[in-house]
Design brief:
single chain, about 260 residues, mainly alpha
């Protein structure tokens, strides 16, 4: 089972990156066969219903499987090191279903060219760079289920990640979500379909953050409440970093 668990985690990891790479092409409307603006065409009302249903299905699956109660239920049926990989694989497959079923609504809301278009593409790239970087800030392997399977393979005990705020987490509580929002909305050609996708995913992100932070407060108590009070949720601020630098400076000054 150790090698089966490891293989399962690797497959889930590869499927995740395949679906993530497709999401970049999907939102940028390039390189992939079906994008936010290209695919099977339906009547407007039907397209809105289908697209809303697909995003709702993704959101429900993503949210339910992230809850501690579901995780405990899942571990009763599969080995604990497989639980995170199952979540990653299921979420990736739901994204794949969304790509396959998406109905474009190619009515233009805005279309800009020149320097503004270049600036929006730069923000798009920056958003995805933030997403990738954020997965490595705490533990890339833990987030995607590979570390759990590897420790099982090596016969090591599983462990929970403690409360830490490395890198961008000192400026914003959810840098990965900030990157996704930036990537979803930064486009020189905004169509009705793209707008619906960005708005639906943004709403899900805000709802997901609400439930995630409730779980974090239960897990870390006052430590996380202080972090909430001093660090913005999505829009970065330099104030936390300034306070940290000032605090270190004052400690050094007192020691001298």
């Amino acid at each position: 089972m150790r090698w089966v668990t490891m293989l399962y985690a690797v497959v889930a990891y590869l499927v995740f990156w395949l679906c993530s790479a497709y999401l970049i092409g999907f939102t940028a409307d390039i390189l992939v066969p079906r994008t936010v603006n290209h695919g099977p065409v339906s009547e407007t009302g039907q397209a809105l219903l289908i697209n809303a249903s697909l995003m709702l299905m993704f959101g429900v699956q993503h949210s339910i499987m992230a809850r501690q109660g579901f995780k405990r239920w899942c571990r009763a049926w599969i080995p604990e090191p497989m639980e995170r990989s199952t979540y990653v694989l299921s979420s990736s497959l739901m994204l794949g279903l969304l790509y396959w079923g998406w109905r474009p609504l190619p009515y233009t809301l805005w279309w800009v060219e020149g320097g503004l278009a270049v600036a929006l593409w730069c923000l798009f790239v920056l958003g995805w760079a933030l997403v990738v970087h954020a997965t490595f800030l705490i533990s890339h392997g833990e987030l995607l289920g590979v570390s759990q399977a590897y420790r099982r393979l090596r016969g090591r005990a599983l462990h929970e990640i403690g409360f830490r705020t490395p890198g961008l987490h000192r400026l914003v509580r959810h840098p990965l979500m900030s990157g996704l929002l930036l990537a979803f909305w930064s486009t020189p050609h905004m169509t009705v379909g793209h707008f619906c996708f960005a708005a639906g995913m943004s709403l899900y992100i805000l709802i997901g953050i609400h439930f995630e932070e409730r779980s974090l407060v239960r897990a870390f108590g006052d430590r996380y409440r202080v972090y909430q009070a001093t660090t913005p949720m999505l829009v970065p601020s330099l104030r936390p970093l300034y306070r940290e630098v000032a605090s270190r400076f004052m400690k050094r000054k007192r020691s001298v």
